[in-house]
From TrEMBL:
Belongs to the class-I aminoacyl-tRNA synthetase family. The chain holds residues 248 to 502 of 1091 of the full protein. One of its GO terms (molecular function) is leucine-tRNA ligase activity. Keywords: Aminoacyl-tRNA synthetase, ATP-binding, Ligase, Nucleotide-binding, Protein biosynthesis. GO terms for biological process: leucyl-tRNA aminoacylation. The keyword Nucleotide-binding applies. The lineage of its organism: Eukaryota, Rhodophyta, Florideophyceae, Rhodymeniophycidae, Gracilariales. The keyword ATP-binding applies. This is leucine--tRNA ligase.
């Protein structure tokens, strides 16, 4: 990790169903429960197709001072304690702990997403010490997300391993949301093809593809959807971040 603080936008993905675990349902009753995904690309949220967690990851449900519940990594909880998320400065407020696997298959409502509901799915490269350990998936513009989704779509054994229902995975396709010169309107799909990436575990080449797509999208991309359609990504990014935060669909988070 670098020495510079990184400012993310937390995308509040609202749980539409509670985890099926004794006692947890009571703890969460009548409250709004969110999976907060840390992103550097808030302008891509129109293209969300699913949410990623690390199946073996340890997550904590936190009670926020505004009444909401967040399920996130303990690493992010400790950071949030110094950013005004909880009642008492420097302290977290914990309700219970969960495994990533407890969250898999839950439907969420994701801000700005074109799909009405999307599902929590497993990705083995999610880091528990970066962001919140919750990652929103935009396969049109993030090579890691595209490859993660394609692994689940193409590999029946992988879906079986995690007990995934086909309907959580197969209906969801990358959505064209940004025109990136040299890459077309599905930049991550194009980059994965060019680099012949066949698995979410091809980390080095995925890293290179991510870098290429991120730079090209940021400097030359033009948004194709939403209220900022026709605007360059560079300009739309800040506006969409502000919109998400002002409407309560997002929140600022640094680490
Ligand atoms: B980005 P940086 Cl469309 N583990 O959001 C693995 N990846 C994580 C993570 C974690 N714990 N927390 C956040 N991320 C991802 C969107 C996106 C992202 C697009 C394109 C590129 C991109 C949709 N996924 O990131 O290491 C999140 O994915 C490329 C930089 O802190 C987050 O932004 O620089 C990004 O990594 C943060 O990466």
């Amino acid at each position: 990790e670098g020495v510079q603080p990184q400012e993310y936008t937390l995308i509040k993905m609202k749980l539409l169903k509670l985890p099926d675990i004794p006692n947890v349902a009571q703890l969460f009753a009548h409250k709004d429960v969110f999976l907060p995904a840390a992103t550097l690309r808030p302008e891509t949220m129109y293209g969300q197709t699913n949410c990623w967690v690390l199946p073996s990851g340890d997550y904590t449900a936190y009670q926020l001072s505004n009444g909401e519940i967040y399920i996130a990594s303990p690493h992010s909880g400790r950071n949030m304690a110094y950013q005004d998320f909880f009642e008492e400065f420097g302290k977290t407020s914990e309700l219970c702990t969960l495994k990533g696997s407890d969250l898999i298959g839950l439907p969420v409502k994701a801000p700005l997403a074109q799909y009405e509901e999307i599902f929590v799915l497993p990705l083995l490269t999610v880091s528990m010490v970066k962001g919140t350990g919750i990652v929103t998936s935009v396969p049109s513009d993030a090579p890691d997300d595209y490859r993660g989704l394609m692994d689940l779509k193409e590999k029946d054994a992988l879906r079986a391993k995690f007990d995934l229902k086909d309907e959580w995975v197969l209906p969801f396709e990358p959505i064209p949301i940004i025109e990136t010169p040299g890459f077309g309107n599905l930049a991550a799909v194009e980059a994965c093809k060019r680099h012949k990436i066949r698995s979410q575990n091809d980390k080095d080449v995925l890293g290179r593809a991510k870098e290429e797509v991120y730079k090209a999208g940021f400097y030359n991309g033009v948004l194709q959807v939403g209220e900022m359609a026709g605007e360059p990504v560079m300009k739309a990014k800040t506006k969409i971040r502000e919109h998400l935060i002002n409407t309560g669909m997002g929140r600022s988070y640094s680490e």
